[in-house]
Every structure is written in structure tokens, then in C-alpha cells.
Write a structure and sequence with these properties.
Length: 83
Amino acid sequence: MKVQIQPISVFPGTATQLELVGVSIRRLAADGHATLTWQLKDSNGSPLKAGIVEIRGSDYQGWNDDDPYLTDLVLAKLGLSKA
């Protein structure tokens, strides 16, 4: 899933997109957790930076298999804003 973001400088270019490229659920239930793999991409879709965000506790419990929730959560954790 991709979302347009406010442009930010990321060596060697400018990122304009955030893409969630994978989710791995590590544990189900109320104390569950998951990892999200993300990429920042330029306007041509070329990857500039990648990483992982851990989802635990109330963040995990609020997910409910809702993709927009995950996008908003990763944006907040990375300090990014939608365009």
C-alpha cells in the first residue's frame, strides 16, 4: 500500500511516497505484536530508504486488520505527513 507524503530529503533524493511492503504477525491475542516493513520512495517509485516498525500493545490492539490504520501509525512513528 502506498501513500503520498509531504516531500522530505532522503539521500540521495527526495521521498514523496511511503509504501508498506510487508507485515509479519509475531504473536496473536491481546498481547500480540507485529512488524511492518516500509520504504520511502521518490516520485519515480525508486526506493530511497527502508526500515521496520514494531507494533505492540495498544497500537497492535487498535489495528483490527485495518490497512489505513497501519499507514497512519507508520506515518506518525516516522514523523511524516500525508501530502
